[in-house]
Sequence to fold (331 residues):
Amino acid sequence: MSESTTQQKPKRALFSSNTRQKLLAFASLIGLMVFFSLASPSFMQTDNIVGILQATAVNGVLAIACTFVIITSGIDLSVGTLMTFCSVMAGVFLTYWGLPFYVGVLAAIFFGALSGFISGTLIAKLKIPPFIATLGMMLVLKGLALVISGTKPIYFNDTPEFTSISQESLIGYLLPDLPIPNAVLILFVMAVGASLILNKTVLGNYTFALGSNEEAVRLSGVNVDRWKIVIYTFAGAICGIAGLLIASRLNSAQPSLGQGYELDAIAAVVIGGTSLSGGTGTILGTIIGAFIISVLTNGLRIMSVAQEWQTVVTGAIIILAVFADNMRKSK
Fold:
């Protein structure tokens, strides 16, 4: 009998590593919902579910932005304060200057893209490590938001249609039994669009390529610096949309809000299976991770767990998610 017939072929796994990670994250989400439903009858009430969806919309959009950056093996610590800065700029255009509604919306997205462009330029052209560059941008944007607003909230009372971005429900208008806020609809539309961009476009191809082997991409003749700047600019524009969502939800731009949101966004990305070393990741996994963070935070709050312990639990989950990622890569 020949050697080729005696050797057994290696068994193929039923699911890929990324698929198993998403299934595990989804199972964890279901498990959390069942646990909190049994622990507190108020968890599954309509108002509470709507609150979870609203919170997930903001964090999910920020997490989508982080997904693109982290897949390139980068990091963006400024997404939370950038979101706040963009909401303040929308307030300046709409409330201070009295410009039309669509101008304020475009202004928020523009300043988000501009900030992302600056971060990308610092990283690509000046070769500043992403951690340091975005940490510096986080502080700069936090200060600018406070200076421009005069450290006071900017209210959108003169622009009544602004609240419709997050609070009203187009789906509820068509289907009264499903009062899902517009913010959630925007999140899912953006998730589908971002997934298509990540998997079906040149931008997505280079996003994965930069995270897998940046030097190989450079040697193949690709302008690596330009694509890095494009990716950070794109992520910044997404943060501008998150700024619109949270400002619409609160009907105000809160200049002191934002710091800390980057931790939840990065946690959602890591829990969803995106590797911090770059090269792998999915938008679907990120959305599942965002829901896990929102359900966990909401459930602990309903159970009257102290804010300090909520932070401890979130940190522990991040550590476990990174550990699981390292184990997956080692296999």
Notes: Confidence is low (pLDDT under 50) at residues 1-7, 9-13. The first helix runs from residue 3 to 6.
